[in-house]
Each structure stands twice: as C-alpha cells, then as structure tokens.
Write a structure and sequence with these properties.
Length: 427
C-alpha cells in the first residue's frame, strides 16, 4: 500500500467505542456518498479475551438502539435495577445505606445497563462492516496541511481556494496517505493526534488507581449496583449477567499495586473484606487490572481540521461511572454538527462547524469533571467531620424524591442540551 493516497470526508483515528460509533452515525445519516474511514491497529483482532465491562446509561443505550446496534448485545446486557450508596470505614461490621436509587427513569427503562466490552465492540465492528465503512488496521503517524496553491489564496482574496487547501494530509503506518476534510482523534487518553496538534492538557493525578476485575458469587445480585465509599476511595460492585459482578476498586496507587501483586489467597482476603458476604462466597473470575486515575481536560477540543472525542478530550474519575458515556455524548454532538453541515453543503472541517461542537461539549465536560473531582475529594478521606457532613447530606437527599429523580436523570445522561441520538432520535 506504500505510496497510495485516498481522499475522504472524515477520517477517524481510533476503533474503540467512540470511533466506531461516530463512523456508524455518519454513514447512516449521510449515506455512502459521504466517505468515512476508521484507522486502528487493533481493528479486526479478537476481543474474546477482554473481560472488562462498562456501564451504558439510558441515553447511550438510546443512541445504540437508534443506530441498530443494541439489539445485538441486549441479551448480554444486565439492567441495573437499583443502586445503594454506603459510607463506612473498612473495618465497620455494618454498612448503613444512606442513599438508594430506583433504577428506572421511565417505566420499563432502566437508567443503565452493564455490558461486557467484547460484546459491544464486536457488535459495533460488525455494524460498521455491514454498512461498508472502511476499517483500516493501521495507525496515524502524522498529519500536515498542504501549502497554499497560489498567491491569491495566501493573500486571502475572495477567489475560492483550490481543493487541496480544504483537506489535511494524513500519513498512516502502512505507508499510505489520506487526504481528508476532517480528522477525529478517538485514540484514547494518550492521544498521539492530540500531541501532534500541540494541544495541551490541564489537570492532575489523584495518586489513586482503580483495580478492575470480575467476580462470581453464590447468590443472585438482583440487578443491584452498590457503591461503598471507603476512606481510600469508592468500591463499586456492578452487576453482570448471571451470578457475576464487575468490581471497580479505588485505592492509593501504592496500595493498588501491592494488592494486585498478592498471591490469589491473599488477594481474595482483601477483596472479601471490602465485598463482604451478602452475596455468599465470592470467587475471582477475571484478570486483575490497575488503572491510574486523574482528571485531565484538553485545552481545546478542536484544532484546524481536527476534533477530539472521548478520552482524547477528557479523562475523569470513575466515581460516577460517566467516563465512557461522556465520550459517547461527544460522539453524538459531533455527529449532529457534521450532519447538519453536510446537509447544507458546508465543509465538515470548517472552523464554524468545529467551534459549534466545542461550545457544546467543553463546558459540560468541565462541569462533570469538576463534580466528580469534588465527590472524590469529599469521600476519599479519613476526616470524621467530613464523614458526618456527607452522611447527613446523603440522608437528606434520600428523603427528597424530586432531587433523587433529578440525580438519576443526570446519571442517565438526560439532563441539559442532549444531542438527538442520545434522545433516541435519528439524525
């Protein structure tokens, strides 16, 4: 493929949830006449070994239903029917529930589902291939802007610029080049495209890490999610299909590394001390993974003919389980502004289009990021005074049904300026 050059409308770097979902949304709305390609070295690789799971909130589920993907994973999706929040110390014999949430935002519509990543990524890849979206198992290595083709363009005269100036040249690791009107960086928290564009990130590390694993248990979880706030950080039990649960367990980074390095028996003892035995005996059924935690937001979500989505644009604490869903909200908003522009015959990579996307998403992202940061600081500490204050606050919220409904709709992604796809409306 060396020396090959193609020309397309939108190139998406990253074949994860965000990149594939955006490609599907654009193809379904604009048809094959609007060309879209996805590049990622991992495309086409088997996801059978990926044991991780994600919480898909109601708004994101509506998006996947609208795109015709949800029906392919519905049988593997576990609805979260209710949620319990506790606040205690590690050695406490009893964990009183200070806050409980019913799991429905509408009759018969749970506020979230737990889905194993391998099923959802597999369904997205299958849908993209069915729609004829070009999936290239290669990486973006660089991108450059063609120089102005003539003096009149350099002087900014009214003469329409030549076609070359309306594209960005993207170099791929297989030696080929793509000329595209818009590049979308969906390549994760360590985005190479963001770095090439020179976009800085602002934020901080938490000196915390999340231990992620799956467990089996004797009794049925009944679709209940549990969030135990402990001094070192939240310990979340999230229901999976069958008598299994996904664990997201926050510790200081040093303790997380120590715990995951323990022999199986010792690791099980640490896990059981936090999980307790309300679901009977537990067994570890998944690999142990450690993910350092921090709060980082890109200084800008756009640059010239470039848009950032998902973890490339922002990374927040998992305390509220909103990271993936914020990325899908980016995707829904960007898809909507691109489709609106394309239907008017406008350039999807123009500053006007990209600035509309940035205005839509950056403030909302900062608000959610700072909210999760505040929650983490409020709960991840050993202060008796703060514990009393937050427990009184949780108890008051638990007695205010209207406020609880607002919180559950916020958690479900249905508050604020919600893009069409997240409302279940086709573009």
């Amino acid at each position: 493929m060396t020396g090959r050059t193609d020309q397309i409308d939108v190139l998406i770097a990253g074949g994860g949830f965000a990149g594939l979902t955006l490609a599907i949304a654009l193809r379904q709305a604009l048809g094959a006449g609007f060309s879209v390609a996805v590049t990622d070295p991992a495309l086409g690789n088997s996801h059978a070994g990926d044991e991780r799971a994600s919480a898909i909130v109601a708004a994101a589920r509506r998006l996947f239903e609208t795109l015709g993907v949800w029906q392919d994973v519905a049988e593997q999706a576990q609805p979260i029917l209710d949620m319990v929040v506790t606040d205690s110390r590690l050695g406490d014999a009893v964990r009183p529930a200070f806050l409980t949430f019913a799991g429905e935002i509408e009759p018969g519509e749970p506020f979230a589902h737990m889905v194993e990543n391998r099923f959802l990524i597999g369904a997205l890849e299958a849908k993209a291939r069915l729609l004829g979206i070009e999936l290239r198992p290669t990486a973006v290595t660089n991108f450059t802007f063609p120089p102005p083709a003539n003096d009149s363009e350099r002087r900014g005269q009214e003469k329409a610029p030549p076609e070359s100036s309306q594209h960005i040249a993207v170099e791929l690791s297989d030696g080929s080049t793509i000329a595209t009107r818009l590049v979308v960086a969906a390549d994760g928290a360590r985005s190479s495209l963001r770095e090439i564009a020179g976009i800085a990130v602002h934020g901080w590390d938490y000196a915390q890490s999340a231990i992620v694993t799956n467990v089996g248990h004797e009794r049925d979880h009944g679709g209940r999610a549990e969030e135990h706030f402990l001094p070192s950080g939240p310990f979340a039990i999230l229901p999976l299909k069958g008598r299994r649960s996904s664990i997201v367990w926050t510790e200081t980074t040093a303790d997380a590394e120590r715990i995951t390095a323990l022999p199986d028996d010792a690791f099980h003892a640490e896990l059981e001390q936090r999980f307790k035995l309300h679901l009977g005996e537990i067994t570890t059924v998944g690999a142990r993974r450690v993910h350092p935690l921090g709060f980082f937001v890109a200084r800008a979500f756009v640059a010239e003919r470039l848009a950032l989505v998902g973890d490339a644009a922002h990374l927040i604490h998992p305390i509220a389980g909103q990271g993936l869903n914020m990325g899908l909200k980016d995707v829904a908003a960007l898809a909507e502004v691109i489709v609106d522009a394309a239907r008017l015959g406008l350039d999807p990579g123009s500053p006007m289009v990209l600035e509309r996307y940035q205005r839509w998403r950056r403030f909302d992202t900062m608000t959610m990021g700072l909210a999760t940061d505040g929650l983490n600081r409020l709960f991840s500490n050993r202060s008796a005074a703060l514990r009393l204050a937050r427990d009184v606050g949780l108890g008051l919220v638990d007695r205010l049904p209207g406020l609880k409904r607002l919180f559950i709709r916020e958690a479900a992604g249905l508050v604020g300026e919600v893009p069409k796809l997240l409302r279940g409306e086709a573009l």
